[in-house]
Design brief:
By secondary structure, the protein is α+β, with helices and mostly antiparallel strands. The protein has helices at residues 27-42, 102-115, and strands at 6-10, 13-22, 51-58, 61-69, 81-85, 88-96, 124-128, 142-148. The chain starts with 5 loop residues before the first strand and ends in an 8-residue tail after the last strand.
Length: 156
């Protein structure tokens, strides 16, 4: 079950990320490895749960980034890049349930964007508040989908 879309303010912060392109079927393995690597690199500087940023969906796969927010900057290295996450307004929906039911959550956000005449400002984020390793029952998985949005344009 999803919550209704709500507007929030995302705070800017430093982060580290691993970005790749791959078939959707390879996402679970990618996230398992990438989130583990990012958590080890971040150590005590992790400033929240890991999340995914989806840059492109296509029939051949997805361009995705595994991200770990930080309390302060650290250098990248190897496949880990140091990035900065912009702040600003966003619309979010809290999703409870399996990942394969997330398309309904995305549809809810799409409907909200159209209804409120708002445009995306950045890649959508899936913030994983639980993981399959921690909570084996998919009906109890909690994912927050956050879509950064542009400020509304006011006429001159």
């Amino acid at each position: 079950m999803d919550t209704a879309p709500e507007i929030i303010t995302v705070e800017p912060c430093p982060a580290i990320a691993i970005r790749t392109e791959l078939p959707i079927s390879e996402l679970p393995q990618f996230f398992g490895d990438a989130f583990h690597e990012l958590a080890e690199r971040a150590g005590d500087l992790a400033a929240g749960p890991p999340f995914a940023r989806y840059h492109r969906f296509g029939p051949d796969g997805v361009e995705v980034e595994a991200v770990m927010p930080l309390s302060s900057d650290i250098p990248g290295g190897g496949r880990v890049a140091a990035i900065h996450l912009d702040g600003g307004p966003a619309v979010q929906v809290r999703h409870l349930g399996p990942y394969d039911e997330l398309p309904a959550t995305y549809a809810s956000i799409e409907h909200w964007l159209e209804e409120h005449h708002r445009d995306r400002a950045d890649a959508v984020r899936e913030i994983y508040l639980t993981s399959p390793g921690e909570v084996p029952d998919p009906m109890q998985w909690v994912t927050v989908v956050v879509q950064p949005i542009r400020e509304p344009v006011t006429p001159p």
